[in-house]
Design brief:
Elements (H helix, E strand, L loop, with lengths): L1 E2 L11 E13 L3 E7 L4 E7 L5 H8 L6 E10 L7 E12 L13 H6 L1 H4 L3 H23 L3 E2 L5 E2 L11 E4 L2 E5 L4 H11 L1 E9 L12 E10 L3 H22 L1 H7 L3 H5 L7 E3 H10 L13 H8 L6 E4 L12 E2 L2 E5 L1 E6 L4 E9 L3 H10 L8 H5 L8 E7 H9 L20
Parallel strand pairs: 1-2, 4-6, 7-11, 13-14
Antiparallel strand pairs: 2-3, 2-5, 3-4, 5-6, 8-10, 9-10, 11-12, 12-19, 14-17, 15-16, 17-18, 18-19
Helix pairs in contact: 4-6, 4-7, 4-13
Length: 430
């Protein structure tokens, strides 16, 4: 019976064959222990010399790291294994012998590992991170589909910036200028006017010359937009979504979190509702914590966000930022126009902002004023302005950065481990 490691629980006491790679091995004179992986999981294979032909045992003892194999053996329960099962190996067929695999069990530096990222992702820790990432993606689709959202794919090549910044990757689109998308948000607003509640899930690009552990040049964003939804209701959607994703990971990635050494008691607390503080209250809190240099009207950096998050064991919303430090499309608070109806969601444990969102301006005259104030001239933004001409409604949306969320949930230190092939300031290989 041919099967996979993830399915061996169905065949206890039976002989199966698994296509696998040899992650590592150790052996004594009489027993060979083979650590096997097949992409679906990891299992230990045990071959006893007295139970197999001598040439088979010698072949098993001579296997090299990352050689590909067909391994045959009897599935048995094993309480000592985190996986719960092991394989009593009766035969090994070598498909391809790997020679001098570069990532050995010794300690390697991050640059060496990143140069060999195409191989490093095979290893158990990286496998666990990628499985958690996959579960977050699966749970994301499930949450939005179950809540009446329609998946829409905005373009990656755009004629202008969504954020009005200069951190863009420029390219030529035949005889026109084009840019790699920083965000699908503007297009998602158009989609929300057609379909009500929508979400996108795709790559975004920021030509930001940053080397921090929180930044990537290419990353993935989940960007919902909702017609007839105002600021307070949008915050509820955000906390429900994040809670849903975290609880799904706890339920379906127990082995992966255990291997990563993640303190799951911290994740178990991630249940809506989340605390909310205003920007004004955040400034006061920072002053109390000794950040005397931060003044009203300045944006928060990573140390500020970490200090604020330390006061909470759940993600915390910081709301009502000064409008002048936020994007042109954010709706001002009607009771206090100098602040916007917006919020950033700050993850616990120093992982920083994982969501930015706001209610969008829906009034045509106000948006025209913002266009003029931000110098948004030319035809590139005309279509976006027209959304306020033809049946405009209050609407809100947000964007969640996938890699920062993976880093927080898994507990890894740097976002470079949260995407299969990271693009960093000085890294375009492999």
């Amino acid at each position: 019976m041919k099967t996979t490691i993830s399915q061996v629980h169905k065949y206890v006491g039976e002989e199966v064959t698994i296509g696998a790679w040899l992650a590592s091995k150790r052996s004594s004179g009489k027993i060979a222990f083979l650590q096997l992986r097949d992409g679906t999981g990891f299992i230990q294979g045990v071959m006893v010399k007295a139970e197999v032909e001598e040439d088979i045992f010698l072949k098993a003892k001579g296997l090299t790291q990352e050689s590909s194999l067909y391994v045959t053996g009897v599935v048995r329960e094993d309480e000592r294994s985190p996986f719960g099962y092991e394989l009593g190996v009766t035969n090994v067929e070598v498909i391809h012998e790997a020679i001098d695999y570069p990532i050995t069990p010794k300690k390697h530096g991050p640059e060496f590992l990143m140069d060999n990222r195409h191989l490093w992702i095979r290893h158990k820790r990286q496998h666990a991170v990628m499985k958690v990432r996959n579960e977050i993606i699966r749970a994301t689709y499930e949450f939005f589909n179950d809540n009446g959202f329609v998946k829409v794919d905005p373009p990656i090549l755009t004629g202008a910036s969504a954020e009005g910044t200069t951190e863009l990757f420029h390219t030529k689109y035949f005889d026109e200028d084009a840019y790699l998308s920083q965000s699908g948000q503007l297009y998602m607003e158009a989609a929300a006017m057609a379909l009500g509640k929508v979400f996108s899930f795709g790559p975004t690009f920021r030509a930001e010359k940053s080397k921090t552990r929180r930044h990537l040049i290419e990353f993935w964003m989940i960007e919902p937009e909702m017609a007839f939804v105002e600021h307070a209701e949008s915050l509820e959607v955000q906390e429900q979504y994040v809670s849903y994703v975290v609880q799904s990971v706890l339920k379906n990635c127990e082995l992966e979190l255990k291997h990563l050494g993640r303190d799951v008691t911290k994740l178990e607390k991630i249940q809506a509702p989340f605390p909310r503080i205003t920007y004004d209250e955040a400034i006061d809190l920072l002053h109390e914590k000794g950040f005397d240099d931060i003044e009203w009207g300045e944006d928060f950096g990573a140390p500020h966000e970490t200090a604020i998050a330390e006061s909470y064991d759940k993600p915390v919303f910081i709301t009502h930022y000064p409008a002048k430090i936020k994007s042109f499309y954010m709706q001002p608070d009607p009771n206090r126009p100098e602040v916007a109806l917006c919020a950033d969601l700050i993850a616990p444990e120093g992982y920083g902002e994982i969501i930015g969102g706001s209610q969008r301006i829906h009034d045509l005259e106000m948006m025209e004023e913002r266009y003029e104030a931000h110098g948004l001239t030319g035809e590139a933004y005309n279509w976006y302005l027209e959304l306020r001409k033809y049946g405009s409604v209050p609407h809100s949306g947000f964007g969640l950065g996938l890699e920062r969320t993976v880093a927080w949930i898994t507990g890894v230190e740097h976002v470079r481990e949260t995407i299969p092939f990271p693009r960093l300031l000085n890294r375009l290989y492999p």
